[in-house]
Design brief:
Layout (H helix, E strand, L loop, with lengths): L1 H25 L67 H12 L3 E2 L2 E2 L13 H19 L17 H16 L6 H8 L10 H13 L2 H4 L19 E4 L2 H12 L6 H8 L6 H12 L2 H15 L25 H19 L4 H6 L2 E4 L19 E4 L14 H6 L8 H12 L23 H11 L1 H15 L24 E3 L8 E3 L2 H10 L1 H16 L5 H14 L6 H7 L8 E4 L4
Antiparallel strand pairs: 1-2, 3-8, 4-5, 6-7
Length: about 600
């Protein structure tokens, strides 16, 4: 009976909240519908102009998407001054929801299950099925919190005491400021308080639980609305568009959901409420403080690089390929788990050690445990299950950057051998934007006879005999050949398992009008990619797309160009780039799409 009464109480209270948000959002045009195709943008999944997808909208940035599909869009040719059209009321992503209930209520799991596993997939609109899930999960969280030690994170007074109504009002205002990322209006406070006078009446404890439940299923909690209608001046806007200055609280939400994937902390809320987020300098000051919190920003940095490297792309090869244990005798499926965790730690460590884009391709830091130590020629018996930070690079076993880690080399290989084609095409497409055509179907049935003492010799013969494929393979195969010193699971080798000596000397055409370069070893290759202007530009573009959820466009190209110039200079850190993302004009301004 208690559960039914609570559901009835929540239903009475939440309907006015729904109406309030509906009225607020109805005052704005949400933008001209887009094509919904952001699949080719690193760090963004399908969305629309009114919801740019799980890469995170401008009101909901920094959440990470599922990566691109099989090509990367080249940057627009020109910078176009102005601010892109942005979303107004995106839903929180599942990862954000989990972060928020943890930060607000201390909840890490519900009934022993991670919060994200209880939710439906990230979507750009509320469906009936999703709404039912949010109701069920919200009810379970409210019940768990009110019955446990974290109850005081929601309510610190006694609703059963003499001042019970005042206790509830104080709780609604205090918790609501954090949960809604703004002060509640009186109508909202009154709507929540109807739960204290509803029929059938609940006990004070039941009413408090119902109020928490109502917060957790309110649109103002589940969404990250930007409803400010204060006009802003933006030059070069197209006819029929309008620009709005975000409120300080909305800027605070952009910062917190970008950098932490969660709600603002008390310091950021105070800055918003005292109008200390109106200038770029003030925004950068808060961003710098928040970035320094590695526990909260580190996972975001790893999530971005997972997307940049296409680890979240379901069409990519990351962590999918098994290997022949009769050939690779110390290989086990546990290596894949260790390899993935290593890369996340690698990306975060490079950033927080002051590293730059170039260090992603040149750093010798590694993380090993008993499962992946043998990949790097280390004794697995000296390590446990936890990943240990080590220095990997040596003259006899060079390991510059993430492309020489087991995660990439193991994933981009065949069952019993290396795959120069997979490794080379990954670098060509995703890091250098060398556009190659789709593979000719006839290639997959092409065979060559003869004896080959190296995998490189076999692939050269295979791609030469199939003339329709030769042009493309001449572009990206050399990139893969330069990594042939790493076997199918990533161990260093000087002899091919077919018996011949490894030859990693190649001539690589990096495209984009540059002269071909002779590469003699993996380190030379990594240095060349790190110095590539196109690779730097694509990295900047990936960050902007990931942070905003938008497809590459002329307006954002201005930000990309500014970041690209900085990336070309030595010493420009990843953390510095992250702070600079908050300095674009589009960070504190929302532009509405043309009216229909």
């Amino acid at each position: 009976m208690k559960e039914k009464r609570l559901r009835s109480l929540v239903g009475l209270g939440v309907l006015p909240l729904l109406a309030l948000v509906a009225c607020g959002s109805a005052t704005e045009n949400h933008g001209t519908p887009g094509s919904g195709n952001t699949g080719n943008v690193p760090g963004a999944t399908a969305g629309s102009t009114s919801n740019p997808g799980t890469g995170g909208g401008t009101a909901n940035p920094g959440t990470g998407g599922s990566g691109g599909t099989d090509v990367v869009l080249p940057p627009p040719e020109k910078c176009v001054e102005g601010v892109p059209v942005s979303t107004q009321i995106p839903l929180m992503l599942n990862r954000q929801y989990a972060n928020v209930v943890h930060d607000l209520l201390g909840v890490t799991d519900v009934g022993g299950q991670p919060v994200t596993s209880l939710l439906v997939g990230d979507a750009d609109q509320m469906t009936n099925a999703a709404w039912k899930v949010y109701q069920d999960v919200g009810e379970k969280i409210a019940k768990q919190v009110m019955a446990g030690a974290d109850k005081t994170k929601f309510i610190t007074c006694d609703p059963a005491g003499a001042a019970g109504a005042d206790c509830l009002k104080t709780t609604i205002k205090t918790f609501g400021r954090k949960a809604f990322r703004r002060e509640l209006v009186q109508e909202e406070v009154d709507a929540f308080m109807t739960l204290n006078s509803a029929t059938p009446a609940g006990t004070p404890a039941e009413v408090a639980e119902a109020i928490l439940n109502a917060f957790l299923i309110s649109p103002s909690f589940l969404m990250i609305p930007e409803l400010s209608v204060e006009a802003d001046t933006v030059p070069n806007l197209a006819a029929g568009t309008a620009a709005f200055k975000l409120s300080p609280q909305e800027v605070a939400s952009r910062l917190s959901f970008l950098l932490w994937g969660s709600v603002p902390d008390d310091l950021l809320n105070t800055a918003a409420d005292t109008n200390q987020l109106s200038t770029k300098e003030q925004i950068l000051s808060q961003a710098t403080r928040m970035i320094a919190n590695r526990d909260k920003t580190g996972p975001f940095i790893s999530a971005f690089h997972d997307d940049w490297a296409q680890q979240n792309n379901s069409s990519a090869h990351w962590f999918k390929n098994p290997h022949d244990t009769t050939v690779f005798t110390d290989y086990s499926a546990a290596q894949q788990t260790a390899n993935k965790a290593e890369l996340d730690k690698f990306f975060e460590e490079v950033a927080y050690s002051g590293g730059s884009f170039k260090d992603l391709l040149l750093s010798n830091v590694g993380f090993v445990n008993k499962d992946n130590a043998s990949t790097y020629g280390l004794d697995p018996t000296k390590y446990g299950t936890e990943l240990t930070k080590v220095t990997l690079d040596s003259a006899a076993n060079p390991r510059p950057g993430f492309l020489t880690r087991g995660g990439f080399l193991n994933s981009y290989a065949g069952y019993a051998e290396t795959s120069p084609i997979l490794r080379g095409s990954f670098m060509a497409i995703w890091l250098l934007s060398i556009q190659v055509g789709a593979p000719d179907p006839s290639f997959f049935t092409t065979t060559v006879s003869g004896t080959y003492t190296t995998q490189r010799a076999y692939i050269e013969a295979l791609t030469q005999v199939n003339q329709p494929c030769k042009g493309c393979h001449d572009v990206f195969n050399p990139l893969g050949y330069a990594l042939e010193n790493y076997d199918g699971v990533g161990k260093w080798q000087t002899k091919d398992r077919k018996g011949g000596d490894i030859n990693s000397t190649v001539t690589v055409d990096f495209g984009n009008g540059t002269s071909p370069q002779q590469i003699t070893n993996p380190t030379d290759l990594m240095k060349a990619i790190a110095a590539s202007a196109k690779a730097q530009e694509l990295y900047a573009q990936a960050w902007v797309a990931f942070a905003t959820g938008r497809q590459p466009n002329g307006n954002d190209k201005c930000t990309v160009d500014a970041l690209k110039l900085k990336l070309a200079a030595d010493g420009y850190s990843i953390l510095g780039l992250l702070g600079d993302l908050t300095q674009a004009d589009s960070f504190k301004t929302r532009v509405r799409g043309t009216t229909l």
